[in-house]
Design brief:
It contains eleven helices and no strands. By secondary structure, it is mainly alpha-helical. It starts with 7 loop residues before the first helix and ends with a helix. About 2% of the residues have low confidence.
């Protein structure tokens, strides 16, 4: 049995619905992109809803229509930004058994990421208190997971509080920035120095 073809009016209504959905999605993407851009140029503390609306070419009401509050907007922003980055590959780190080799690989990967994302990380670190609680909690959990991924290369008796503290120091964005930006140390040398620190402690 052949089903009847939709009428022209039905087809036009369906087309309008599709176009409307596409416009809504595009507006949402524009708002998120505007927020990410402002976070990376003026920092989260100086990013207002009015500034986001102006950057995206929409009204404040439109921003709130798409995002019920700033937490929802932050969640979309962090996901959007992360999707554009080559994030550190902890799965690869964990496949390297020897502590020194894992430390070198992990720090090389992490410092490469810090280098790539320097501007955004500098501003979000500076404006840490302006970040929503869930973002700060997630950032802390990410840091702890990275530290664990490196520290577990050592046998249990060598996973001391001292080593954990030094691994955390070596893997800190602030440590990388101090060495590679403030002191202009080549990234390879910074990796070597910090690897030596955590291996020989």
């Amino acid at each position: 049995m052949v089903e009847p073809r939709p009428s022209a009016a039905t087809a036009r209504a369906g087309y309008r619905m599709v176009k409307r959905a596409e416009q809504i999605d595009e507006t949402r993407r524009s708002i998120v992109a505007a927020a990410v851009s402002l976070h990376g140029t003026v920092g989260p503390a100086n990013t207002t809803i009015s500034a986001i609306a102006e950057e995206a070419g929409v009204s404040r009401v439109t921003v709130y229509r798409h995002f019920r509050d700033e937490d929802a907007l932050f969640a979309a922003c962090t996901s959007h930004w992360a999707a554009q980055q080559q994030m550190p590959d902890l799965t690869r780190w964990r496949k390297i058994p020897a502590p020194e080799d894992r430390a070198q690989a992990a720090l090389t990967d992490l410092y490469r990421f810090f280098d790539d994302a320097e501007q955004m990380l500098t501003l979000t670190t500076r404006d840490r208190e302006a970040l929503p609680d869930f973002v700060r909690k997630r950032n802390q959990e990410t840091t702890e997971t990275q530290v664990d991924a490196l520290l577990l290369a050592w046998p249990p008796r060598q996973r001391t509080k001292r080593r954990r503290a030094l691994v955390g120091h070596a893997m800190s964005f602030g440590t990388w920035r101090s060495l590679c930006v403030d002191q202009a140390m080549p990234r390879r040398d910074a990796v070597a120095v910090m690897t030596h620190l955590v291996v020989d402690c």
